[in-house]
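### Sample
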Amino acid sequence: MKLDIIGDIHGCYQELYDLTVKLGYSWESGLPFHPDGRKLAFVGDLTDRGPESLKVVDVVYRLAVEQNNAFYVPGNHCNKLYRFFLGRNVQITHGLETTVAEYGSLSVREQKKVNKMFRDLYESAPLYRILDNRKLIIAHAGIRADFIGNTSSKVKTFVLYGDITGATNPDGTPERRDWALAYKGNTWVVYGHTPVKEPRKINNTYNIDTGCVFGGKLTALRYPEFEIADVPSSMPFVPEKFRSFEEK
């Protein structure tokens, strides 16, 4: 199994295109295709904040659902957009407003198509992916070793939001424990959710959310080679959105 696992895209379609080209994918057919049979995988948070969320959704839907030729797991922003498309009462904030604005500019017919497409993508995806004979897990915000194989509400909260404490940081974001520092599993966990300036490898975990939508870069981890590829973001740099860790 040869994968190129892509970090949080957040509507940065051009960077997704540029990164896949850098990885050797051709877009001649309108979708990224690798001549060596490599597949793309996505850690979630396809949408929100960036300029072209619906184009990203279209690409991932066609790859993962129509062609069954890519792996996708949902992120917390995906979950919120899914609930919006179901007609639930969600707050149009924290980036969702950009996706909703794109959606609102479409015709009613196009809206119905996008709504169904995203719901199908979301509903067809597992909470997290166990791949390569349990050597690899792709989970949006990560997963504890003792949670692997479980999909309880507690596990769902962890996978979508991280190891939240219930408290909030001064900027209003949820306070999260550094779960990767305590991870002791043999299975590699590749995740995103928490923007870091450089990919963070610790204890068989890899955080590849390098804050593309905040002016960082879009990063891919090549598996099983564990090689990194990235492209710079076209978005303004917002330094306070990146987290630094004290390794112990």
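DSSP finds seven helices and twelve strands in the chain. This sample (Bis(5'-nucleosyl)-tetraphosphatase PrpE [asymmetrical]) is used throughout the tutorial notebook.
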